[in-house]
Queue: 4 jobs
Job 1
Amino acid sequence: MADRLRHHLRDKEFWDRVVVVTSKDANLTKSHGRYLESRLIVLAPEAGRVTLENGTSPPVPLLPEADRSDMNEFLAQLQIVLPVLGVDAIRVRPVTPSLVTGISSAHSPTFTLRDVKARVDALAQQIDSEFTVLAGSTVVAEWSRTGDAESTRKSYAAYRAHNERLIAEGVIAVEGGVGRITRDHVFASPSTAGAIIVGRTCNGRKEWVSTDGQTFGVWETRDVAQ
């Protein structure tokens, strides 16, 4: 492991942290490791939370049925434990009701954020405790605002960098001066999502509104108020 980390530190520039996965019984063989590697490389794009820099997709090695079952259980445990440690790379979200599929859902109500002048029409839901903007939502093509105060300039620069990263990763596709969310995407908060979508600061708790006129903030605190 030490040799591999030194090699990556010298030759790979895309990483700044590492997660080491092992077994308490030290019973993972090389074949087990290759099976897990292959499955992890498949799970990362499915989760859609990170950009996968790995250039190869190794085939899933043949394992006895009992070993495959054990490794799949191992992966299931990783999908529970890693998010607790702040690593969401393989946290695959449940099927969501996107604008493309129209699948119904038992999650939160669908919240809308519209700005006719900015050509914005976005839908979002709270799914598995995460604020998720749904595929097909239209958003601003770029973040172009600047500010006078230093704190405002820094805040706007952060939003602009966020917008540019989402475009680079293919989450936002720009065509005809309009951005479109290509796949359901999780944001840190409704306000961050709103700011990226409308191209200005946004109080997401007030500006995201459900079909019955309820704001996200009111919906989120519904149980507290009762």
Job 2
Amino acid sequence: MFMPLPQTSTHVGYPAGAVDGDATVLAVLPRETAGEWLVITDRTPFHPLDSGWPDQPADTGQLVLGDRRLTVLDCLIGAAAEDSDELLVGEDIPVRRGEQGWRWLVLHVVESDADLTDLAGAPAGLQVDARRRRELSAGHTGCHLMALALNAVLAGRWRKEVRTDGLGAPDFDALAITSSRIHPGGSTDTYRIGKSLRKKGFSTDGLAGELPELSERVNGRLAGWLATDAPVELAAPGPELTARRTWSCLLPDGTPTIPCGGTHLRRLGELSALTVRLELAEDGSTLVANTIAELA
């Protein structure tokens, strides 16, 4: 059965911290995986996996439709050109999120042996797993703080002028990162420190031997920031999924801002501890930062 896609992008509530809400089902589409369906609503508190930078996992939870309660197994981003009802999902989307002439949709993945296409137009309740969301938010907030602290600690290793972060330090994180993965209560960030970074002016001399001291200095800076209980803000110009959101935190050193599509804590006092362990690959080409964010 053909079902037209919504004509407007999904409105999202997760940047403001929403973990539940009411919505209207606009479309239900079967997936290639038997028994799985994509439910599209006009608005949602669910955070989907970003198709361009998949750092934070999708929210999970419940979709309540009358007396039916469906488990949301995953949450993805879909897109369709304005003149088409062909839905493209995740890595199959050929343009960047927010591209003009496209509709951007949050897809709730649910499992059901019954045909769900008759649900289009029905009211729905959406309930995110709030505990898991908070743990992921802790990991994401910790990830940004770790990056800023790491930038500051590595500042003396730069021999050339490069772009700086929101606190004025050379932005090692932005210049070297190859992947970032948020998980409940932490993150794993991988940095490439090969020939291209050295050409930009970063020195790797003696880095392996200094890692314990560097980790200690990063952790000391993080502990000092947590003690301030500084407020965290995720600003968005509008409710659309495509709105460009920015993270900021009122730190003693300044108020850095970082483009971010994830979810976050509201204050640093929500964390009881934030620590990082730095590891260098044997060939010295990759630095990995393993961050643990413990909720208070």
Job 3
Amino acid sequence: MRKSDWERILLRNSFVDMGVLNTFDLIGKVALLTGGARGLGQAMAIGLAEAGADVCVLDRDDVTETCKRIEQTGRKAVGIREDLSGLSPESAQSILAACAAALGELDILINNAGIIRRAPAIAFPEEDWRQVLDIHLNATFFLSQAAANVFVHHHKPGKIINIASMLSFQGGLTVPSYTAAKSAILGLTKALANEWAAKGINVNAIAPGYFTTEVTAGIRSDPVRNQAILNRIPAGEWGDPNALKGTIVYLASAASDYVHGTVVPVDGGWLAN
């Protein structure tokens, strides 16, 4: 029996049986989350740790702060500094191997890393088009492929969670590459779920709405644009990144074992309006 199995047993025995709530715990699980240096990625990484997972945090920027906050929950954290531009299948396998060497074999993959470039479609730069698609779509596929091979090789179930967007459903303005990538993420999530559900691998996605992050700081500082967005959100406010913790834990845990190929909007009701 693995140490993590004993840890799970001891923890559960120390509490009164809470029935369905036990299916949400991630004690003994290992997660890899990309794009975790700040913002939504950082919040989700901490949420996974609060539910009991050890977390490998990957970003092209420094992840020290995220790892520190994970360790404050009592869980283990390891950072990987890497730019996912031009990621190859071999590089994806190396990332998973590094995560396994530090924390143990992978159980959960969250494909969150991404960038956005803005310009009118008629003059959108080729470099921006290729880079956005590369990081959002190619890296997501190659990391998912590598993770699925790990799960199948070790005869274990696994969870893959992709980060989609409201622009998986809508067109947006001056963000053609981002919209194309996020629309593709929705389709890829369903395609992988169709192939891998029977192997015990859950592939799902989250579509965040407007959240208070560095990426949206410019919009929030514009009184006219900010108010227009707030008027459209039924909840009447921007999302706090911590609002994603519950959804990420649900999709990463046994509570979602029969959920395959779905995209969960966390948007304050934006898509319903």
Job 4
Amino acid sequence: MKMSLTKISVLSALLLTLVGGCFGGPTGPRPVPVSGKITMDGKPLQGARVTFDNDQRPAVGITSPDGSFKLPDGALPGDYRIAIGDPPGNAGMTRPMMAATIDGKPEPTPVELPLKYSDPAQTALKFTVTKDGPNIANFDLTSK
């Protein structure tokens, strides 16, 4: 029984696809954990969006009450511009920041961030994510 050249080509391509899938196929760089802490004039910056951008795969995290953040999906190794701005759904140029109230409980206080931190095109903040880590990106911002 003769097989046509077309059938052999299709079966060969199918077999290669299956074998490639079993061995995981080509692998590229994988995202690695990134975390850090953002302060403004020495105080934790709460509720700010921290964006790592390298024009390929941006990564975003939100700061907690103590100013710490974690990129939930990690980031690929490489050089990044960092923009720190409003959390999703918050309009304007103010960011909540922790401040003590009379009863001792923390309460968000609006803070305006300079464009050198919040505008991705103007940001002065940079960070290099490495494959082997640790990738701890701490930034102490100043309001002036």
